[in-house]
Amino acid sequence: xTYHGVDLHKSYATISVRDESGKAIRFLAHEAxxxxxxxxxxxxxxxxxxxxxxxxxxxxxIQEKGARCLVLDAYRFRIIRDSWNKSDRRDAVNxxxxxxxxxxxxxxxxxxxxxxxxxxxxxxKLFGQYQLLNKQIRQLKAQVESLLVEEGIGExxxxxxxxxxPEAAEETLAKLELSDSSRTCIRxxxxxLTPLQNEKQRLRAEIVLTGExxxxxxxxxxxxxxxxxxxxxxxxxxxxxxxxxxxxRKLYAYLGVxxxxxxxxxKTRDGHINRQSRELVRTLFSQAxxxxxxxxxxxxxxxxxxxxxxxxGRARIAILRKVIGxxxxxxxxxxxxxxxxxxxxxKKLRAYRRELRKAxxxxxxx
Length: 366
Fold this sequence. Notes:
By secondary structure, the chain is α/β, with parallel strands linked by helices. The chain folds into three domains: about 1-105, YqgF/RNase H-like domain (Nucleotidyltransferase, domain 5); about 120-210; about 215-360, no CATH class. It has 16 helices and seven strands. A five-stranded mixed β-sheet has the order 3-2-1-4-5. Strands 6-7 form a two-stranded antiparallel ribbon. Helix 5 (about 120-150) crosses helix 10. The longest helix has about 35 residues, at about 120-150. The radius of gyration is 26 Å and the shape is globular.
């Protein structure tokens, strides 16, 4: 076996290679064509890469050549993170050494990163773009509403009518007394809103079509009232392989729906949720909380009781934890939600099939 430690960069890679005895047999300080290097790999090679942008694409190409590829969490890899004299050479050498030690002697346990499938990677890209468009749309709407308030037009209904129907807003604006500067800014924001909203709808269709290989899991999760095909795909994209979480607590932490805690002097204090975790599920499912609460009388009573005692914010997160727990059990067991409504489920299935057909036509036209 041959062990390759690769320090990847945008335009080149630094590579250290060891044989079965741990002896360094090759070192490439500046391999500009990493794709060509991969062509020479085979079943007797093991490669370790640091997780970064583009890593999983390279990992897939390496595995297609029959070699094994491990993706490393560089933040948790202390040999590199705690190195005072950090350099490309030192990083590559340390990677190959740790890989050899872990494979041959078991003395080093590498902190590996789960490698998502191509479908999950594509969904994550698309959902990332979807979140970006959502953010831009929210900013433009907020800008328009704030300009109206600044001009003394504080009626919420007027602001919502303008931002929700930008293509027909000119008639409303003509009736309002606005300064020239405010009118110019509002019109500009509205002109930007329409194409962004159209792109958002096209992107949503592309997400549904890209997630078609996951449709069995999607249909299973849709048995929960309030969970659409789009929300189910968001959950599957964020989580990936549900079996990689050995406990529900670990899944909660991964999705950022548990509070951080500090312990000192025998006292433990809970803090805010970890917002540095994955946020897609937390963001999209928070918008569906009213439907999720209505999915069962038990959830409804639990939510209302918690709102009265702890407030809406904590109650919303608690509902998300319960729903995430249900989804985990359903995916692991392959059983539908026990309280699902057949008529509503069939209606959602028909809507899902229509979305797939529409997305296929949209892709053909494009």
